[in-house]
Amino acid sequence: MTNTPTEVIFRIRRFDPAVDGEPHWEEHRLSYTAGMTVLDGLRKIKETASPTLAWRSSCRMGVCGSCGMFVNGRPRLACNTQVTELDTNLVLVAPLPNFTTIRDLVPDLMPMFDAHVALHPYIIRDDVDEQYGPAGEFVQSIHEVEQYLQFSYCIKCGCCMAACPTYATDPTYSGPMPLSQAHRYNVDTRDGGFKARRKDLAGERGPWRCHYAGECSRVCPKGVDPAKAIQLMKRELVLDYLHLLRHGCPAKVVPRPAGATRRDGIPDAPAPTIANAPRM
Amino acid sequence: MRDQRWWTWHVAAGLVILVFLGLHMVIMHLDAVVGIFNPHGGHPIEWANVVERAKSAFFMVTYIVLLGAALFHGLYGLRNILFELNPASALKRGLNIILVAGGFGLFALGTWAAWQSFVLATTHVIAHTL
User: Fold this and answer.
1) Domains in chain A, ordered, with CATH?
2) String of DSSP letters for chain A
């Protein structure tokens, strides 16, 4: 926006299933303050005009992924969106599409998390004893880390799911977030869980419905490229079908350096909690 | 597993189409440069050239392979588009049956046509020679 606005108009989609038959729009006018984000505006409205307004938010710094909303026709994080960057003083705020709305700006993200969990989004080792009782650290080269690093920045905000045209019509499709996270672990050399994930990935819930619209990558507030992950996953699965993919987790455990002693005053690391987890 | 297998064949069929459609383009549109498939000269679809290609077992096989690849590639793509509309399970099964049956039917028809043209061209040449 060329000129800083003096007034910002928030038009918010309200819906309380206990009261409303269908959603309606509510308008509020706020004085602009320097650095105002969409989340700031919502807080101001809740404090001064509409105390029943509901949304999710937590960290206010684009880290927790709670405040994904549909702002001016695009899924965004409310805390990470400055009003000035919208290029208008009219801010349209609605819940994320492609999810059912629990209330006001609160989407039901459970289908996304169910799909996420189904694809085993965690490291599964071939050597189970090492997984549950790690003896040391695993060796990875910089190149190996780069294969999954950007995908590990995902904060599960659901913006990619809300932007995906395939997920909009086909609920059997796992969606960009779960698939990119499955890829994140598939290409992690510490992981050997490809076969476990393949049960779902090779079927209808896998990456096959993606036709590379690329909207998921365009809207991701963390710069993750789920569309790329999905295309790479297709390649992996094709290579797997052709028996050209190497499975297993070759990343080795580094033994503790012989003769190394801990300097005085440095406490021992806490015991790994993974040892208490139920074995899969 | 099914989608993984079908997608792999979908990609493979795309490669086959790329090669044989490329061959088609070369024959039809680069005849001035690559005239080996049009031994009688003139336009590639002139009768003499068409008969010359039709009596070739190589072309008969490529027609059938290209037909199979194009049918599988196209019908699997169509299936993906239709399934994005989230039809009911029974409708999905019905669509699968229709697409598979339709695909095999068209493949059988095309194969028969390619074989018949091969037979016709070779017998025509034999009769012409006699």
Assistant:
1) 7-107 (3.10.20.30), 110-241 (1.10.1060.10)
2) --S--SEEEEEEEE--TTT-SS-EEEEEEEE--TT-BHHHHHHHHHHHT-TT------SSSSSS---EEEETTEEEEGGG-BGGGGTSSEEEEEPPTTS-EEETTEE--HHHHHHHHHT--S---SSHHHHHS--SEEP--HHHHHTTTGGGG----SHHHHH-HHHHH-TTS--HHHHHHHHHHHT-TT---HHHHHHHHTSTTSGGG-----HHHHH-TT---HHHHHHHHHHHHHHHHTT-S--S--PPEEPPPTT--PPTTPPPPPPPGGGGSPP-
* Contact residues on chain A for B84, CB-CB shorter than 8 A: 166, 169-170, 209
Tens-digit pLDDT profile for residues A227-261: 999 999 999 999 999 999 877 677 888 877 788 78
DSSP-derived letter for residue B30 is -
Q: What is the pLDDT of residues B13-40, one digit of tens each?
A: 999 999 999 999 988 888 877 777 777 8
Given this model, what pLDDT does residue B130 score?
A: 47
Search chain B and give the residue with CA nearest A204.
Answer: B3
Ranges of residues in chain B whose predicted pLDDT is under 70: 124-130
* Least confident segment among A15-24, A84-93, A177-186, B81-90: B81-90
Domains of chain B (ranges; CATH) run 2-129 (1.20.1300.10)
Phi, psi torsion values for A30, nearest 5 degrees: -125, 150
**A208 Cβ under 8 Å from any chain B Cβ:** yes
